[in-house]
Amino acid sequence: MRIPESLVAPATAQLASYARAPFVPATRVDTEASSLGARKFTLKLAAGHPMPGEDRADDRCDLNQWLVKSPESTFIYTVSGDSMDLAGILDGDQVVVDRGLQAHSGDIVVAALAAHGHTIKRFRIRGGGLALEPESANPQYQAHTVDLSDGDIIWGVVTAVVRKIGRKSRATSL
Known about the structure:
Layout: H1 8-19, E1 27-28, E2 37-41, E3 57-62, H2 63-67, E4 74-78, E5 94-98, E6 108-113, E7 117-126, E8 129-133, E9 144-146, E10 153-162
Antiparallel strand pairs: 1-4, 2-3, 4-5, 5-10, 6-7, 6-10, 7-8, 8-9
């Protein structure tokens, strides 16, 4: 792997931190124990103007296969808060996190910050430093500098967001 010379020390510290990574409560994905199949349609849904199409199920879509590339390093977390709402990650969403992936600048990651605990933010490499940036309409959230020498670690890369869309109860009024 090639990295800029200015990032050798932080990268070395990051790799060393994996050996002492803190326990993070999450749901481990067990693709053997669950069957998450659904019917898959080839028809694309128009989010703008309606378009004609056929309702034809061509295949089955295994959600485990679609969402989880490495079951042994994949975890699911529940998001709490609104610091990533502009990235489409909302309070109560489930995020799929792969700990086996290397974080690249621009990825959304789960990080363990020594001074602040665990968080989900956009990872950036800027001017030789590492930063975690919120993407929120709420101005109270600020970027955090990642200090690998202080024990901060990038715990994993977010690969998917899962959100249930519930039906609102309809009260009948006459």
